[in-house]
Amino acid sequence: MASIVEHIAQAGLKPEIDALAGPELLEQIGNVLPRYDAMVRDKLQKEAVATSNLADDRQDRLNKTADDPMG
Fold this sequence. Notes:
The chain has one domain. Helix content is about 90%, strand content about 0%. The protein is built from three helices and no strands. α2 (about 15-20) packs across α3 (about 25-65).
């Protein structure tokens, strides 16, 4: 989302967007953006931990099978 806001700024689209949607739109996006970025980082971090835990569990199971193929 930050890249879209950056593109709007670089392309000089703010006056057009303000005219179409009102200046509040980009202002509100700017207000929400830090919270959105934090939410995305948190979700990605949780997914990475969950994936890591699954990989560890899988490796543990493989090791147990290798140690005791009958067990």
